[in-house]
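Fold it.
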Amino acid sequence: MLELKHIHKTYDGKPLLADISFTVAEGETVCLLGASGSGKSTLLRMIARLESPDSGFISFNGLDLSNTPPHLLDFGLVFQDYSLFPHLSVNDNVAFGLKMRRKGQHEIAERVDMMLRLVNLENFGDRKIADLSGGEQQRVALARALAIEPRLLMFDEPLGALDKKLKDSLLNELRTILHKTKIPAIYVTHDQEEAFAIADRILILHGGSIIREGTPTDVCANPQSKHVAESLGLGKVFDGEVKVKGLRSKVASEFGKFVLECDHKHSKGEKVHLLVRLLSAKKEANVVSGIVVDIVFQQDKYKVTLDNGLYFHFDKSPKLGQKISVPVKVECLS
């Protein structure tokens, strides 16, 4: 198991990462999700011993990694730019780490064949890197990382340069390979679709801290914070004021008055961040009405925006200009 405890890092005198702690269990894929500059790649580089934290502790299976040279970690790295050797064949690229470990020729040949079959490139061994597509090159990079039988796999925006169709295909293959090999993995991305497709657990980084951690289902169902809800596009986030406190607090906002169910202890007059989302069944408490002014198809849902600025995700789309009333759930965010 990989474990990070209380990691701090500054750049140019400014804090980049503050008190970062998390684990990656055997067979688990953990995704670090955040915008550019949130410190995702820096965390990966510190785990790979390419950088050092200002303070904190990184261990693997209980062993402190602070004095372990990068080449002795037996961690596999896969980057966005593939980092392949253009003058070497596919076979030689995949074999590189094995040769550095002075494995025998027969063992190397068997291992390379096995890895190329695993990534569906079994007939590509003699090809030059320059003759491969972007997706094929990324498969070679993955095969090379897997060939050394790594204790941990690390992915730094590995699919960022690929088009959506190829990205989706590779995500499916990668998820299958990770589940089959049971190698623990850390996957760094700014793309939430990638994160939700590949991760067993997601860590959302913002402002140098992990602001939300959980399974993809948990994070969507309970974002907890304004930033998480907005960055994931879960629904309209707006301000409200508590008018009546209790288990079913009543709040007022520019969009009307709502009954709020949450575990927070609110006081009368308190300002709160609210998230409004569609409910599948009508309830007494909260109903929103408006005229449909915009419809955008996103993945398997229709994002429908009303004239009051609220938007909801529907399985079936209403018509532009139609007046609709929808039951909504109003959630309290930090």
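The mean pLDDT is 91.
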